[in-house]
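Supplementary Data S3. Sequence and structure tokens for construct A.
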Amino acid sequence: MNEAVACRASRINILAAVMAAALMLSACAVGPDYEAPAPPVQMRYTPDDQRQIMAGDAPAQQIRSDITMPSLWWQAFGSAELDSLVAAALTASPTVNSARATVEQARSLLNAARGAMYPVLEFTLSGQHSNMTASARGTEGNRYSSGPAISFLPDLFCGTRRRIELAQAQLAYQQAQWEAARLSLVANLVLQAIALASALEQIAAVRDIVAVDERNLELVRISTSAGKTAQLDVLTASSQLAADQALLAPLLQQASIARHALAVLAGKTSGEWTPPEFNFSMLHLPDKLPLSLPSDLVRRRPDLQGAEALLQAANAAIGVAAAQLYPNVTLHASWAKTANSPAGLFGGASFTSVAADLLAPLFNGQALAAQRDAAIHAYAAALENYAQAILQAFGQVADRLEALEQDGSLLATQARALQIARATLGLTQQSYEAGQASLLQLLTAQRLYLESRLGMARASGQRYADTAQFFVAMGGERLTDARPEPVSTAPR
């Protein structure tokens, strides 16, 4: 009895010694540790970032760095219909759901990579039939064995840890892609709602002018019947009516395209669902716009977070490739019972086995070294790509700032033009009815008024659209911290 206890204690001590040796060996690392690039030193995107944008009698917009970004940036447009549409689309969008599933895939791959840090414990059951010759002093028969077996691959040069870092960076990249998909979806929803509102505003303007054309034509016909005007005036008025009616078809098509785009973005089909009829009365123009400093922008925008995640993945890949240049050791330990029959396994003899395998590269035609060098060059390329992504992001912010400035000026100009055209048309109509103005003067005034109303609708829509694009350039809503988790080997 004491011998059996001593035997078990000896086996436990052997296994413990194997595990202790493995842990002591797992202390070295190859490849560079990742260091995040320093934040940009620039303090502005343009010579005058923080500004107040005037737009005549229209509301002004303030762009300041002390304004907090709304958690749900699209709610700054003050439209309950838009808020409801965005909430539904974020749930139903196949694109967003696909990106979310890819995040979970990357998370599972990270968990699989972490599993390599732990020993593998298995239960083995085997049977063997032997037929040995007499000269070997054996007998024909069966042998059965069963018992637990443990194996462990010590991370001698931290190749496994680098693989975990690589999987973490890939998870961070997929999280950034998911956030980018959400941001793109919401941005497109807002922009299409604005496009629909602009199209409907222009359609209303054209229909008003068409109604005026129809009244003018009727007046000309009455005047012609009375012998006061020539038949040519009738043809001129008819031609003007037809020309203005022709403007409706492209605008109606623009509105249809916007409705269909909203349906697709919402995860619906146009045959089963119709979006709200957005107009400018349903949308509030945000008057306070938050400006993120360049050093903060790189932590907000998902495209920059994704570019940095790829940089970290490339850094980890150097360590993975470098670890291949060094030996690998695999430790094995097993305890098993043997017997001549399956029933005998419950009381048969037992044995313990401890082994170690060493696999070291000797000659491979410099293939492993070339793979490490390739990983180093890939990191250099990723670093340049990250720098280029930052430059493009800063350029986009500068473009949006200047666009908003020009939108304010354009809107003020269009408002003045519309005011003058409306007054001119009113006076010309009175003069024409009094016989003091010609039909040509009336049609010219109508044309200027129509162009001014269409220009006002387009300018308003562009200001709304550039405001939405400004929020997108600032990174929009920050959903999660996509920074990779620190490498951890603690049990989950």
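Construct B, processed identically:
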Amino acid sequence: MLTSRFEPASRKNVDRTRDSYIPRKGPLDVGVCPDCHAINRKKRWYLDEVEYVSLARASAVRRRCPACRKIADGFPSGVVTLRGGFLRTHRDEILTIVRNEERRARGTNPLERIMAIREGDGSVEILTTDEKLAQRVGREIRKAYQGTVSYKWSEDANLVRVNWSREA
């Protein structure tokens, strides 16, 4: 009998197996990230400030999480580019949506973070540590303000590019 494994639609467009910052095998001991206070246990990173304090006192192994390493190395996995006349007039509101989406995503997965927000000539570029966060940001902005969104995956760079634009 042939059975197929269920794969949620939200995970189909993200390939975490090629991310060189996430090791294949997890360490056997519990570790904590000194930069963002994330805890690593059984190959999973999660946030729990109370547990972090007790583990830090118990001299747990200190290791930087993949997101902190990506930020330090300047290696994004997602790039969101925002353009258009609408952006010039609603820039602060749009960036508030971006920050709220990051906070929501980080509650689920502490490895999903914004690395930098760069502003240029009539555009804003948002660098993320995770492909999925870039997709979520593009989807939320489109949901709030319409406009056009395009996604482009770069296999060689392990990078997703999300472009959003709307004219006034």
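The chain has two domains: 24-64, 74-165. Confidence is low (pLDDT under 50) at residues 4-11.
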